[in-house]
Amino acid sequence: MELEFHGYCTLCESPFLPFLEQGMGRVSEAEGGIPEGEEKKVAEGMPMGKEAPNSPRTSLSLRGKAHVGSPMKVKRELHPLQNRWALWFFKNDRSRAWQDNLHLVTKVDTVEDFWALYSHIQLASKLSSGCDYALFKDGIEPMWEDSKNKWGGRWLVSLAKQQRHIELDRLWLETLLCLIGESFEEHSRDVCGAVVNIRTKGDKIAVWTREAENQAGVLHIGRVYKEHLGLSPKTVIGYQAHADTATKSNSLAKNKFVV
C-alpha cells in the first residue's frame, strides 16, 4: 500500500535540529513576534484580513520585527489556539517499516509557539525529495488508517516542479494559517490536518478532512481554502476520498468534488 509519507528521521539528519537543540520556548516581546492585532485574530479563529492574492496574510512578515526592550519587561500575554496541533516529519527510507519513518516533532497550542516552531524548522522548499511535513490536530496521526481520517479525504493542490522555489513556501504557510486560525468557520471541526509532500516530479499540498460524504462541509472548506491560497478562478483543485486513493495510484484516483 502506497501512502503519501515515506522516509525516516534521525536527529543528525533532521531539518528541525536547531529547533530541538535550542528548545522552542515562548516568543516574548524582546524576541519578536507577530503584530499584536494579528495574533489575536488567529487565536480567536478570525480571518487575518484580505491581503493581495500573492501574500499569505501579509507573508512571512507576520512573524513581526524584533522588539528590543528592557530585560525586565513583562512577557506578553500568550494567545491560545482553539486546538492543539502536532507537527510530524518523514524522510524516505524504504528499508524501514512505514510506521518507523513517522517522527513527531512537537505540539503547539499558542500563536507564539506556532511562530517559534515555524522559525526554527527548514522551509518546505529546502527539504529533500521524499520528505514530508504534516500538521494535524492533536490525537490524529497523519495516516489513512487513523479512525478520524479513515472515512475522509483531502483537497489536493499539485504544483509543477518550477513552483517549488516560487510558490511552495507561501502556499504551505497559508495552509498552516488556515488550520491554526480555524478559517473554515463551523466546518473547521471537520479538518484533520494538512500535508506537504516534496517530490521530484512535483510537490503536493493537501488539507485532510474527516468525512468525505459531508458534501456541504467539504465544498465549503475547498472554496475557502482556494480563496485563501489566492488561486486563479480558472485553477481547479480536486477532493479525493482516502478510500479511493488507497486503492488506486494518485494519478488514477478520481475527484469526488472540485472547486
Automatic annotation (TrEMBL):
Q: Which Pfam families match?
A: IF4E (PF01652)
Give one GO molecular function term.
translation initiation factor activity
Keywords assigned by UniProt, alphabetized = Initiation factor, Protein biosynthesis, RNA-binding
Please indicate if the UniProt record lists Protein biosynthesis as a keyword.
yes
Q: Which domain of life is it from?
A: Eukaryota
Whether Aminoacyl-tRNA synthetase counts among this entry's keywords is no
The record's listing under InterPro entries reads: TIF_eIF4e-like (IPR023398), TIF_eIF_4E (IPR001040), TIF_eIF_4E_CS (IPR019770)
The UniProt similarity line reads: Belongs to the eukaryotic initiation factor 4E family.
- Report the protein name in the record: Eukaryotic translation initiation factor 4E type 1B
Taxonomic source organism: Saguinus oedipus (Cotton-top tamarin)
